[in-house]
């Protein structure tokens, strides 16, 4: 995963609340290989029903409605956004599992109140280092879990994050086995 310090772009808008993971990528498209990419089927069925769901090609920032990514734990929903080119989703709230999957796949889910989202115009810069968005009307902050921020800033997945504590883990393990030697795995042979 690539590090994410900041991104500047004109955002696409999806002014719909409760867009669930099945709307982001319908289940019938999940049988294709991940290597084929899911970007072409992002919002496939919803685009046919609602013109607001037609995102411009090249969009990298998405302004969405409340409870974005609700529903199932379908990680393919994040794959579809990522493969389409979306790297940031700004919304008043997210489905919990979706937000976690987003971070684990290099997509920033930034929580911003709806009234502030409505005021974002033109090109914006999402700066994860400063945890703020700059736009023609000024600057606004956003919310993100500090651990998620660290992971995105460094391009780390969960394993990379754990590896940052390798020395402390090794020290704990050695001390634990010294206090309780019977817990050390035995090799029989």
Give a brief rundown of this model.
With 189 residues, the protein is α/β, with parallel strands linked by helices. The longest helix has 14 residues.
Short descriptors:
four-stranded parallel sheet; Aconitase, domain 4; about 190 residues; 8 helices; alpha/beta; four-stranded antiparallel sheet
For the record, give the distance between the C-alpha atoms at the N and C termini, rounded to a whole number.
42 Å
Using the alpha-carbon principal axes, give the shape.
Answer: globular
What is the fold-level CATH name, i.e. the topology?
A: Aconitase, domain 4
**Strand count, sense and closure of the main sheet?**
4 strands, antiparallel
Summed over residues and divided by their number, the pLDDT gives a mean of: 93
Number of strands: 8
Note the quaternary state here: single chain
CATH superfamily membership: Aconitase, domain 4
Can you tell me the CATH architecture? Answer: Alpha-Beta Barrel
Q: Roughly how much helix do the residues carry, as a percent range?
A: 25-40%
Quote the beta fraction.
15-25%
Instruction: Please give the count of helices.
Output: 8
> In terms of structural class, how would the helical and strand content be classed?
alpha/beta
